Structure formats: C-alpha cells, structure tokens
Automatic annotation (TrEMBL):
Alphabetized SUPFAM superfamilies for the sequence: Periplasmic binding protein-like II
Family named by the database record: Belongs to the UPF0065 (bug) family.
Matches recorded under InterPro entries: BUG, Bug_dom1
Full protein name: Tripartite tricarboxylate transporter substrate binding protein
Residues in the signal sequence: 1-24
The organism's place on the tree of life at top rank: Bacteria
UniProt entry keywords in alphabetical sequence: Signal
Coiled coil: none
Keyword check for Signal: yes
Length: 323
C-alpha cells in the first residue's frame, strides 16, 4: 500500500458534508447499507467504519442491515437513494464480478447504478478439514481423494460463488472427482467437517480461523498468489502445484449511488481510507479474517474489470446458472 495514496487528513475527510446540499446535511444522516444480518464479519466491518466516520465527517452515521435475496435488497436501497454520497453500500465482490455471468437478468446494472468508492478489505478462501480426518496436509488429502472415487465432496456456503468455482477448478487440477456440495451457510459446513460427515469444506478464511487456532479443523490450502498474513503457515494452492487457484482474493468494497458527483465520491473515498488506517480498526478487522486493503475509486473500478475478465470464462466453462 502506497502511503501517499491513503495518507489523507481529517480536514480533507470532513469536507464531505460540505459538498452536499445544506438541506441534506440537516435532514439525513450518512447510511451504510449491507445485505447481511447483524453480527459477523460484514456487520463488524460496517460498524467499525461507521464509528470512525462519525468523527471524521462530524455527522450521524447509521448502519442499515437489509439481508436476503443475494444482497439484492441492500443494493436496491442504495440504487434508489439520492445521488448525494450519503448512502453507502458495502458489498462483496461476487455482486459485481460473478453475478453478471451467473444470473440471466439482474435487478441492477452494476456499472450504471453504482459508483465504486474504495476496496475496503480482502480475504482468501481456505480449504479445511476436520482434525479427526486421516490427512494432515494437502498432499495427504490429494492422495486420499484419488484413492477412492466419491471421496472428494467439498462443502461450501451456497452455489454460484467463488468457492463453488474454486472446487471445480481444484478437481480439474487434481485430475480427480471433486464434487461441490452447497450448504445453507458456512457454519453448517464447518459442523459437518468437524463431525467427519464431509471430507473438506471451502469458505472465506475468516470463518475458519477460530476453529483452526483451537485445533478443531486443519487448514489445507488457501487461494491467492501469496500466503495470507492471517495464517502464514498455510500454503497456497499454487505452492502445492494446484494451478488455477491463484485468482483474485474475495473482497468487500464501498459503493454509492450512480450519478453521485465525482468530488463527493473522492471525499467519501478519502474518509473511508483514513478510517481503515486506524490501528484499532485494523486489528478488529483482522480478528474477523479480513485484510485491510484501501484504494481509490479508479483502482476499485479497475479491480472489478480485472476480476470480471478472470471469472467470465471460468463460469462459462462450468455452465452454471443461478436462475
């Protein structure tokens, strides 16, 4: 991270309310809208940022949880908001980089209805297994899967996500039968891993760290081009000779309503980037398995374009449709 990119002062961040119409300042707080329920990593991210923004922007900042429907409810709220920068969406990367290729029709236009503000945090996916399994590392797991067809079931939260396509890519790389098994949530996958009901599971590393540190599960490998500082002893798939899984990490980004003036977007981006640099905030986010990122609006836009170019052929080859 380049210091010059994100070393913005409080004075610059505090200009955001001044960039808005006076009546908006008087009548409306800043709203951070998320498509996830209270509790958990995304809610913690939103509330951590809201606390910092209340000070830097000198205004009321609220967090609004609108879970369900693949985060479409939250996106609809922000899509229909006034384009004044006072309504902020925090959402995960698939809404902008995967859903456009898995849904025949989306209730939003990812390019026109939203303006990228900043990439907030990144996280790799991790392949894990219950501590009672006979394999202690990925090489053992690879041999175990290849020894008997049908063993390679991998649990994942939902279908049509980066975890889903990671399982398919892993099967190709291993030359073995590996079947993605969708669950209703990550907690259910972990429960079956620990109970020995499924050989492995894949999800964001943050959902696994506590159990890993407690010796309840083993982390076999992580996605990405390099090891994660959240679990530096866990190798990447690429290190292990499994190609095709060094793809972009998952991430959460901040967006605002399409049509918001560029100067307002820039000021909002500066305020959020400054909040991310707070040591206490960084520590809190790391506890949830989130690596602080930070970016300019243009950099987030470029990341979306790059990730989309990566995922489109992968999804096309899988032939998956979410609707």
């Amino acid at each position: 991270m380049k210091r010059k990119t994100f070393a913005f002062g409080l004075a610059a961040a505090a200009l955001l309310p001044a960039a808005l119409p006076a009546h908006a300042q008087d009548a409306a707080p800043v709203r951070i809208v998320i498509g996830f329920p209270p509790g958990g990593a995304v809610d913690s991210l939103a509330r951590t940022l809201a606390e910092k923004l209340r000070t830097s922007l000198n205004t009321t900042v609220l967090v609004e949880n609108r879970p369900g429907a693949n985060t479409f409810l939250a996106m609809d709220t922000v899509k229909k908001a006034a384009p004044d920068g006072r309504t902020v969406l925090i959402n995960f990367s698939p809404a902008f980089t995967i859903y456009p290729f898995t849904f025949s029709k989306l209730p939003y236009d990812p390019q026109k209805d939203f303006v990228p503000v900043t990439q907030l945090v990144r996280f790799p996916l991790a392949l894990s297994a219950g501590a009672n399994q006979p394999y202690r590392n990925f090489d053992d797991y690879r041999r175990w899967v290849k020894a008997a067809p049908g063993r390679g079931s991998v649990g994942m939260p939902g279908a049509g996500t980066s975890a889903h396509f990671a399982v398919l890519e892993m099967g190709k790389a291993l030359g073995a039968e590996v079947t993605p098994v969708p669950y209703k949530g990550g907690a259910a996958v972990l429960a079956d891993e620990m109970g020995g009901h499924i050989g492995a599971g894949i999800d964001s590393i943050g959902s696994k760290l506590e159990l890993y540190r407690g010796g309840k599960i083993r982390l076999l490998a992580v996605t990405g081009a390099k090891r994660t500082p959240l679990a530096p002893d866990v190798p990447t798939f690429d290190e292990l000779g499994v190609k095709g899984l060094d793809y972009p990490s998952g991430w959460y980004g901040a967006f605002t309503t399409g049509g918001t003036p560029p100067d307002v977007v820039q000021k909002l981006s500066r305020a959020l980037n400054e909040a991310l640099q707070d040591p206490a905030a960084r520590k809190q986010l790391e506890n949830f398995g989130l690596e602080v990122a930070g970016s300019t609006p243009a950099e987030l836009k470029a990341t979306i374009e790059s990730d989309s170019r990566f995922w489109q052929p992968v999804i096309k080859a899988a032939g998956f449709k979410a609707d």
